[in-house]
Amino acid sequence: MTVSPNPVLNTSSFPGILHATLAGSEQGLEQLSIWQQILEPGAATPPHRHDCEEVILCSAGRGELHFDGRKVSFGAHQTVCIPRNALHQLVNSGRDPLHLVAVFSKTPVEVFLPDGAPVALPWSS
Amino acid sequence: MTVSPNPVLNTSSFPGILHATLAGSEQGLEQLSIWQQILEPGAATPPHRHDCEEVILCSAGRGELHFDGRKVSFGAHQTVCIPRNALHQLVNSGRDPLHLVAVFSKTPVEVFLPDGAPVALPWSS
What is the ipTM of this complex? Predict the structure, then answer.
């Protein structure tokens, strides 16, 4: 049982993406990882997938979820559910920072590019 | 892939606990459930456990986590990690509403009293 202050979000090697890991294997978890992120205006993740489920809670800003050739908008007080292994990309489509909490059904989280290549994450997860 | 507006929190049969399920089996998830809750001042959950991991994200208010005869305080911008099957109780120990998001590594979530009796939840999870 742990109670931890949320870390300050830091810049990362992904342009325009600030990150803090709120919970994961470092807190003794085996099946959950929780990230807090801010995507600056214009920032985007690469297209990628995870071998676990992901839920994104948006608290501020406007974003787009790109998948299967589609673009679906989302914003504050909306929740995005992404099935295991579904290719997706997140884009800040607005003028303000996009504030997200991302929940994963695995820890550490693994990220794969569309060709299957693993992405080396610049943060613990 | 789903994008859903967060439901309005509703009162429940648990005194002083308002609830909304943000994500779970109804969104096609198999391994995650996410609840948003407000505990009014003085409100508390019963002592209980889950057969899955739980992470609580606190955004406002002051709470106490009771477990193993201990009381640990937490508040806004802190994160609580609760191992699988760990008995615990959440209490609003402050004067203001306690705002929480609870993440579970299972859907639907099952809740058990200390004697092992299942709790019939008044919401879908």
Answer: 0.96
